[in-house]
Amino acid sequence: MNIQILIDEQPRELPAGSNLAELLALLQREPRSVATAVNGRFVAREARPGTMLAEGDQVLLFQPIVGG
Amino acid sequence: MTDSFEIAGVPLASRFLLGSAGYPNPQLLAEAVKASQTQLLTVGLKRSAQGGDNGFVAMALAAARAQGARLLPNTAGCRSAAEAVQLACMARELYDTAWIKLEVTGDEHTLQPEPFELLAAASELVKLGFTVLPYCTDDLVLCRRLLDAGCAVLMPWGAPIGSGQGLLNPWALRTLRERLPEAVLIVDAGLGAPSHAAQAMELGYDAVLLNSAVAQARDPVRMAHAFRDAVRAGRQAYLAGVMPAQDFAVPSTPVSGHAFVLS
């Protein structure tokens, strides 16, 4: 059974029971290259494996950029 | 002679804080950082869905590392305390620093800081162990509240971000300096010319932070040199004691009566 979530506002299907660390692996994102938030809340790197994703969750990925 | 200042107990040899955005290419960014001799370089975060950055951030990180500069991530784009706290937590993880330039915007036209959300975010971030450098207005009461909340420094604006207008309200900035003599004060934003930076330093500010004035110059590297020298000149002038202005002339050459008495 699959669930649908939003990654950076784009819909994506995942196997039910997936966690945030598994999602990053699926996206082929190096774990240290991004910071993560689920439903507007920061999820620390070490908390990703224990963060189970549910239907309708909104996942945002952030990366470094230049800034003033 | 070293004339350093401290943020949260960390000495910084340069009083010129520089932003890393908006340079024509990564190489010019690196050269401008080097020319500035900055010890604190601002960086940001963005949603990864917005694509790559053509090597700018990698060059910024390398340039900072090459001269031992710390990174100062910002919370640009946040409109509420809650957003800013979440973004700051992400910045701490990505950049491995607890220092945060706290920005919470309250007006889209002027990009004026939202004082109430800023204070709420600052209070929360201090509790979470951050060293908070808030970008704020020059409102004395707000600045006092930010210090009471535990902010390490205050960074009042000179003028709206990227406007290059210089110090729009020198009276307010001077008043802040006089009323908060123990606070570390940094003019952030709105500086366009090196003379603006010198003016801020002559007022007794501990440092300046700017980005666009260097990044958008015809020659960013030369402009970084110019600002570096202006910051030093302004600081030296402050330490030397700028003479008070007055409304009447005073002869600088000592004379006794008339130079010639012709009869």
Which key features would you list for this structure?
heterodimer, A: 68 residues, mainly beta, five-stranded mixed sheet, 1 helix, globular, B: 263 residues, alpha/beta, five-stranded parallel sheet, three-stranded parallel sheet, Beta-grasp_dom_sf (chain A), Sulfur carrier protein ThiS (chain A), ThiS/MoaD-like (chain A), Mopterin_synth/thiamin_S_b (chain A)
Structure report:
The complex is a heterodimer of chains A (68) and B (263). By secondary structure, chain A is mainly β. Chain A has 1 helix and 5 strands; from the N terminus they run E-E-H-E-E-E. Chain A has a 5-stranded mixed beta sheet with strand order 2-1-5-3-4, with no helix packed on it. Chain A starts with a strand and ends with a strand. By secondary structure, chain B is an alpha/beta fold. Helices cover 39% and strands 16% of the residues of chain B. Chain B has helices at residues 26-36, 56-66, 81-95, 115-127, 140-148, 170-179, 194-202, 212-215, 220-240, and strands spanning 5-7, 10-12, 16-19, 40-47, 70-73, 99-102, 131-136, 155-156, 186-188, 207-210. A 5-stranded parallel beta sheet of chain B has the order 5-4-3-10-9. A 3-stranded parallel beta sheet of chain B has the order 6-7-8. A two-stranded antiparallel ribbon of chain B has the order 1-2. In chain B, helix 5 links the parallel strand 7 (131-136) and strand 8. In chain B, helix 1 packs parallel to helix 9, helix 3 crosses helix 4 (115-127) and helix 7 runs parallel beside helix 9 (220-240). Classes of the chains: A mainly beta (68), B alpha/beta (263). Strand 5 of chain A pairs antiparallel with strand 4 (40-47) of chain B.
